[in-house]
Amino acid sequence: MQIFVKTLTGRTLTLQVDSQDTIAKVKSLIEEQEPGFYQHQQKLLLGRSQLDDDWRLHNGDVQEGCTLYLLLRTIPMRVFVKTLQDKTVTLETNPPETVDNVLAKLEEQEGIEACRHRLKFGSKLLNAGCTLLQQHIQHKSTLTLCPRILPITIRRQTGRAMLIEVNLSDTVARVKQKIREQEGIPAEQQTLKLHAKDLMDHLTVCDYNITEGCSLDMILCPVTQVFLKTLGGTTVSLETKPSDTVGNILAKVAEKERYPLQHYYLECEAKKLDTRQTLAEQNVPNKATLYLCLRPIPITVRRQPTGRAILVEVKISDTVASVKQKIREQEGIPAEQQTLKLHAKDLMDHLTVCDYNITEGCSLDMILRPVTQVFVKTPRGKTVGLETQPSDTVGNILVQCAEKERYPLQHYYLQIDARKLDTGLTLLEQNVPNKATLQLCLRLFPITVRQRTGQAILMHVNLSDTIASVKQKIYEEAGILAEQQTLKLHAKDLMDHLTVCDYNITEGCSLDMILRHGQGRR
């Protein structure tokens, strides 16, 4: 026979039974039709009477076409909800509760707005009006919170409308991307408006309170082209809209540059452009060339010990040497006399304003070094005057001298009154007085001269020595007449008029000596 079972949700189940079937058998048939309606939770009523499990249908006066009412015993259970922030929330609930009730509990417990979210179990989106039991959610199941998908309408200027599905967390930029994917319209050409107000790319659907069925207007902006000359001298092409602000363009460009955005500005035809205004508002034409420039940073330089302050404009790329040059141009103080300090630390000439993190309004201290003069006599007999400070190392002065000489720096040294000066010490530390005369000398280095007998002679030469003068030194050392000597390097005869430098003879080098006309000695 056929009977009907009506649930609390209003659904009616149809069952084929026998009058000899027990109520327990009927409950098992219900569980087969409705997984999750477990037998031990079911209560069946006929009228107001509860039917016991061991009763047979005919005992309970259940006849063909009867309607039984199904109640479910409430058994508390726990479910877990994973939020958009990857946080897991534990909720106490019951199988007959609807998904909407679970969302309401989540809102009460965590402050997450129920109307803006939906729940998923696995990959299946849960029906908000159905119970946990109906959707087979069991004790300790994990549900996933997701944004509610909203259908909205995008209206083009032509009047054509398109339907787009968005969720509340989508940014306006993401909505434009969805339009591009659906319609092929580049995002940079789209301007979206709500109630005639432009929507900002970084804000979300939620921020603008865009709800289901809402309509946005889309204005298509014509694309223009500008050329941008970077600090490195490279010219790049940019596609822009007349409605783009200079700030928008600057942000795109600065992403690929070395310094932070705030250190740059753009100019066109020597006119600085306002970052808040659009290209159109500043009459920047199509295919115009813009120049990327570094902003000047005002800093204060305090002279010590007087405390007098000088205002100097620098750029973040300026070296300390160029800052000193700006002070020289402004105040007439030679750069070599300036020592600049930040927080009592000397600044190195080759490092930049950026390297020292010098920012707008920063103060530097300037110490002036007294100027002294020394004279340097070169190997060629020429005397030159140099302005120095007592704190200059001999190495610093040697570098200046060697720049104008023939041989590399490492082949020179300085001496005063036949005393060799230490390159690592200052003039002051070595008691070099003002207006002293220093001698620039070539360093001697050892070489070996090998005779056929196997005997070796150790000689000291310098780069400017000719082969003839090397032979003379051998004569003075070993008594072998110069005219009897033939010197060879790698089996090649050395010419008297050429120098040690010409033959690239270096420290530790070995020469072979052949004696002509016997082995005459003095």
TrEMBL record:
Q: Mainly localized where?
A: cytoplasm
Domain spans labelled Ubiquitin-like: 1-73, 77-145, 150-220, 224-295, 297-369, 372-443, 445-520
What the entry lists under CDD domains is as follows:
Ubl_ubiquitin_like
What keywords sit in the KW lines?
A: Cytoplasm, Isopeptide bond, Nucleus, Repeat, Ubl conjugation
Task: Give the Gene3D superfamilies listed for this entry.
Answer: Phosphatidylinositol 3-kinase Catalytic Subunit, Chain A, domain 1 (3.10.20.90)
Q: SUPFAM superfamilies from the xrefs?
A: Ubiquitin-like
State where the protein is found: Cytoplasm; Nucleus
Do you know which Pfam families this protein is assigned to?
A: ubiquitin
According to the UniProt record, one GO cellular component term is: cytoplasm
Tell me which PROSITE patterns the record gives. UBIQUITIN_2 (PS50053)
| Family to which this protein belongs | Belongs to the ubiquitin family.
Full protein name: Ubiquitin-like domain-containing protein
Species of the source: Littorina saxatilis
